[in-house]
Specification:
alpha/beta, six-stranded parallel beta sheet, 9 strands, binds zinc ion
Length: 345
């Protein structure tokens, strides 16, 4: 039985998960004929965890790149609208801060959209505006692979030549995104691209789902210098539950190790730069493995099973001595601060 203080924090805080591969799963399942997937499969956990707002990635599998990337992105957004039509009183697409206020007031779950790699744009900057109108408010220039804008961090072992930073297209994309009020996300960037973004960007940036390299040396995690750079721009880093990013001895990774990443960042740059970007993948891989044989072997796991275990995360923070006010910052207020700063209107 979790203590009453944890429940109170869950109830009173605005909880934001800055990264979930929701629409990738939803679109795939809808193709199989399933409906009301968010309402029946995700909402119960969001509600039990006290989650108010999630950022869904628009992620494109390798097999669709390049020709089908644009179409798959549109399919995923279309799938979201079908889901909203089926559950209009429960979920809502959020495009600005007023929408976020409304979601909280009406007790719905807000869903925001983020590019996890700009494969859908290929090399056409004019499409950015179209996706902005559709609701995309975050741009991660790359997933772990290389594309027309930049080079990914290569979390998978591949044979490849020398890595680079942003391309001309990538630089224009950062500028155009910030001009529209889109937040730049550096999770999955390689070090060269990261440095370029730090130089070019004028607004707060985020690493929506990355941990610290000091505690788990993995290409997807951030060095101390990178954490300081994000903080110096007023940015926020979302904590990721994937075992590989949580502990070097990933087989034994646990929520205890995840909380150490929170502590590490807080000690380095302050509590106003930590958020949640859990990136729950266990369920996704169950579905994906049926569809794509290449993805069927996966030894990694999520150190929290779902948002249902948010109470354990909060309890862990309380036991480490975090105040209720600090916990509220980590659970959502830090990300909301940036949304308010960067979104237009
Ligand atoms: Zn990711």
């Amino acid at each position: 039985m979790m203590n009453q203080c944890v429940k109170k924090i869950q109830r009173d805080s605005i909880i934001v998960d800055a990264h979930i591969d929701l629409l990738y799963d939803v679109e795939m399942q809808r193709r199989k004929g399933n409906t009301k997937i968010i309402e029946t499969q995700y909402l119960p956990q969001f509600v039990e965890g006290g989650v108010n707002l999630v950022v869904s990635s628009i992620y494109i599998n390798d097999m669709f790149i390049p020709e089908m990337a644009l179409r798959k992105a549109l399919n995923q957004i279309s799938a979201l609208h079908s889901e909203i039509d089926e559950s209009p009183d429960k979920i809502m697409l959020c495009k600005d801060f007023e929408d976020i206020d409304r979601v909280i007031e009406e007790g719905k779950i807000g869903i925001m959209l983020s590019f996890e790699g700009v494969a859908p744009l290929y090399n056409d900057l004019s499409l950015l505006r179209v996706f902005y109108e559709l609701g995309v408010r975050f741009v991660g220039l790359t997933w772990s692979r290389r594309n027309f804008a930049a080079d990914g961090c290569k979390s998978l072992e591949v044979r490849e030549g020398t890595r680079g930073g942003l391309t001309e297209f990538g630089i224009k994309l950062v500028e155009a995104s910030e001009a529209l009020g889109i937040i730049i996300d550096v999770s999955h960037m390689n070090d060269e691209g990261f440095s370029d973004i730090i130089k070019i960007s004028q607004k707060p940036i985020i690493a929506s789902h990355s941990n610290t390299k000091a505690l788990a040396k993995h290409p997807r995690n951030l060095t101390d210098e990178q954490i300081k750079s994000i903080a110096s721009k007023g940015g926020v880093i979302g904590m990721n539950v994937a075992s590989l990013f949580v502990a070097e001895d990933s087989k034994n990774a646990s929520i205890k190790h995840l909380l150490e990443h929170v502590d590490y960042i807080v000690n380095l740059v302050g509590v106003q730069h930590v958020g949640l970007g859990f990136d729950f993948c266990d369920r996704l891989f169950e579905n994906v493995s049926v569809e794509f044989e290449t993805s069927s072997s996966r030894s990694a796991f999520d150190v929290m099973k779902s948002h249902v275990e948010l109470d354990q995360f909060i309890d862990g923070l309380l036991k480490k001595g975090y105040s209720e006010a600090d916990i509220e910052l980590i659970l959502g207020k830090n990300f909301l601060r940036i949304y308010k700063q960067v979104f237009r209107g």
